[in-house]
UniProtKB/TrEMBL annotation:
Reported cofactor(s): biotin
Pfam assignment, any one: Biotin_carb_N
Name listed for the protein in its UniProt record: Acetyl/propionyl/methylcrotonyl-CoA carboxylase subunit alpha
Keyword flag Transmembrane: no
SUPFAM superfamilies membership: Glutathione synthetase ATP-binding domain-like, PreATP-grasp domain, Rudiment single hybrid motif, Single hybrid motif
Domain Biotin carboxylation intervals: 2-446
Keyword field: ATP-binding, Biotin, Ligase, Nucleotide-binding
Domain ATP-grasp residues, every copy: 121-319
Domain Lipoyl-binding: 588-663
Protein species of origin: Seohaeicola nanhaiensis
InterPro entries: ATP-grasp, BC-like_N, Biotin_BS, Biotin_carboxylase_complex, Biotin_carboxylation_dom, Biotin_COase_C, Biotin_lipoyl, CPAse_ATP-bd
Amino acid sequence: MSFTRVLIANRGEIALRIQRGCRKLGLETVAVFSEADRDAPFVAEADHAVCIGPAAASESYLNVAAILEAARATGAGAVHPGYGFLSENPDFAAAVEAAGLVFIGPAPDAIAQMGSKIAAKAAAEAAGVPVLPGYRGADQSDSRLLQEAGALGVPFLVKASAGGGGRGMRLVTDMADAPKAIASARAEAQGAFGDPAVFLERYALRSRHVEVQVLGDTHGNLVHLGDRDCSLQRNHQKLIEEAPAPNLPDDLREHMRAAAVRLAQAIGYRSAGTVEYLYDPERRAYYFLEMNTRLQVEHPVTEAITGIDLVEWQLRIARGERLTFQQPDVHFEGHAIEVRVAAENPAENYRPETGTITLWAPPSGVRLDTGVREGSVVGHHYDSMLAKLIIHAPDRAQAIRDSVAAIEGFAVGGVGLNLAFQRALLMHPDFAAIRHHTAGLPEMFANGWTPPESDAQSRALAALALHLHLVPTAGSTPWQGLGAWRLTARAGLPGAASYWASGEEDPACVAGDTRNLTITLPDGTPVAVEASGLTADRLTGRIGGVPFARAAHLRRTKDHWQVFLSTPDGMAGFAIETLEDRHLQRASGKVGGADLLVAPMPGAVVELRVAPGDRVAAGDTLVVLEAMKLLQSLVAPFAGIVAEIYCAAGDTVAGQAPLVKLDPEETQ
C-alpha cells in the first residue's frame, strides 16, 4: 500500500485542496485535466499534468480509461477521486484497484452498498439506525408503487435509488399527482444515473439536514468527528454549512453520532465518510437519509472545530496507517461556517454566470479554498462553485458576524457571484434563531430575493473612485493622463468630468479640485467630499466633516470600467463608462436588437421548441440551454412570429450568440 505519487481524478478547488494534503506528507501529485482546464491553477500547481480529453466531462473527468492511462504513464501509485465525478462510482474504485493502484477511499463494495439508497436504508435498519417510513421494495411496477403510496399517504417523496443532489426526486402533496410524479422521477433517474429504480418515503415538514463525519482505518478503528448542519439549501443543493449542528438536544446528538459509527462499522468502512440524517425538531427524531462515501464539500468546517486534517488522514489510511487517536481524543472547539461561493445570479433563478475573472480580491485572515484566480475563465461545462469561505470563531454568533464581514470584503470582477445572496441568508433572522429548514427559502424570501440597491452616497463614491484613478498625477504628461478630464468648463471655472453608470441615461458629474470635489448624481443629488484620496485600493475622505474609508478596486474591461466598492450592504460592483467609452461604442455601431433572443451565457442547446413561421406568445419557451449542469428556459420577450433560427439541438453556443429572431405580432 506504499505510494509516493498521487493522481487526483478531479478539478478545481478540491484538486488544489488534495494537492495541499499531498505536499504535507511529501507526496508528488498528478493533475488530469480537460482542454477547458488547460490553464487552470490546479494544473499549474501539480508536479505532473496530463490532458485526458475535451471539455465535456463524459469525455474527460468521467473517462476511466484515460484516467488510468494517465496514472500508468506518470507512475502514480494511488488515485484520489475528490468529490463528484467518479468519487462514488464503485466500478471506478474497482478498476483502480484492478490496475494495481491504491484507491484513496472506501472499498468498492461499501461504495456500491451505500450508493443504492434502497440497499443503504436496509443496512441502516439492520444497524439499528432509524429510517423514515416508506416503500423500498423490489417490485417497481406502477400498480405496486401506487398501492404503497396510498398506504403511506401525502405528503411523500418519490426518490431515485441511485445518485443524489436532488435528481430524480419529486414531492407529492396530492395523491392525484402520484402517477405523474413517479413517471417523472423514473425518467430523470434513468437519464441521470442509468437506473430508473425509485422508492417512496414520508415527507417530514420543516426538517433540518444534519450529518455526522466518520473516519475509519484498515485496522478496524473507527471514530466520528462530530456533526454538521447543512439545512440552508435550494432544490436540495447546499448553500451554507456549519459545525457543530446548532440547537440539537445533547442526548439526540450523541445518539446520531453513535448510530453513524455503528453503521460504518457494520459495513467495514474505511477512509472519510458522512452519514446524513433528516432531523425533525417537532418530533425530536432523526432519520437516516444516505451515506456519502467520499470527502464532502463541507469537510473544512469539521477540520476547523477538530483540528484534524481529513485529506491528510485519507492519504495516511490509504497507506495502511492506523488512526493515532481514539474517540475520547477528539475534541470540538468553537463554531465554523462555510459559505459556498458560486458563479450564479440568485436574483434571476440562479442563472449561471460565465466569463473571465478580471478581479479576484478575497478577504484576508480567513480560510479560502478555491480553484480560480484573476484571469481564470469560468465556463459552462462544470459546476458553478468557485470557492468556499471557511470561518472559525469561538461561538455561532461570532462566526456569523465574521462570515458577513468576510463576504463584505470579497471583491470579484468579470463574473457575477452569489455573495450578496449568501450575506442575506447569514443575516436573516430565521438563520440567527435556527428556524431555517431544508425547504425554507420561500419562507425566508416570500417575494423572492432581490439584491440591495446601492445608496446615493455609494453611487457617488464609485464615480469618485474612478475619477481619482483617472486624474493625471504630478509629473505625468497630458497624453498619459487625460482620461475623463478632457471635458472642461468655461475659462476660469473648475473642470468637470462625466461618468455613466450601467443603465443610466444621464451621467454623474464630478467637479472641483483634486482634494475637494462635488459629485452630482443623475437625479441631481449632490455629494460633497473633502480631502478625497485613492491609495492602494482604499478610498478616503470626509463627507460633512465625517471621515470615511472604503475598500475600492478598479479594473478595466474592453468597453467600460469596473469599480468595486465596500458599501453598507457589502461589496458592490459598478460598471461605469467615461465619455470616451460612449463615443467608441457609438462609433463601433454596437446596437441591441429587441427582436433577437440571444444566449445569456455559453452553453449547449438541449432543446429547440419552435420552427420558422411558428406563432408564439410572450413567455413561451423557445430554447432550452444547459450551462453548469443547470437547464435554462429562454422565453419569448413578446408575442410574435418566429422569423429565423440560428441554432439546433446539440449545438454549443457562445454567450450573446443569436438563437432566434422574432417578428413582433402586428396589432390592429
